[in-house]
């Protein structure tokens, strides 16, 4: 009887632990892709498309990021803003510069 009770407690703790780990998983994922004008990024929320950004945000024309790393950094910053503000973010030219983006 004690063994069954102990087994149930251990099983319950394992289920609770697995649930808490699943809840901490970041639902957002940044994917970087090449474009004809450079690099862009896509942000997925639990595997569903949230943002598709083939160009540098807020800039005139069709100019992509110069490097894959730039696109990745900006995409990650956008995810941070989404998580902090619970809304679609905007990036200023100063923020883009701080992330190492060369604005044309």
Summarize the structure.
It contains three helices and three strands. It has 104 residues and is of the alpha+beta class. It has a domain at 27-98.
Describe the model:
With 104 residues, this protein is α+β, with helices and mostly antiparallel strands. It has a domain at 27-98. The protein has helices at residues 2-24, 68-85, 93-98; strands at residues 28-35, 38-45, 48-53. The chain has a three-stranded antiparallel beta sheet with strand order 1-2-3, with helices on one face. A hairpin with a 2-residue loop joins β2 (38-45) and β3 (48-53). It comes from Spirosoma flavum. This is DUF4907 domain-containing protein.
Radius of gyration: 20 Å
Shape: elongated
Report the major sheet.
3 strands, antiparallel
Series of H and E elements: HEEEHH
Strand content: 15-25%
Number of helical segments with 4 or more residues: 3
Unreliable spans are none
Helical percentage: 40-55%
What's the N-to-C terminus distance?
73 Å
Write down the overall mean pLDDT.
87
Lateral arrangement of strands in the main beta sheet:
1-2-3
Question: Which structural class do the helices and strands define?
Answer: alpha+beta
How many strand units?
A: 3
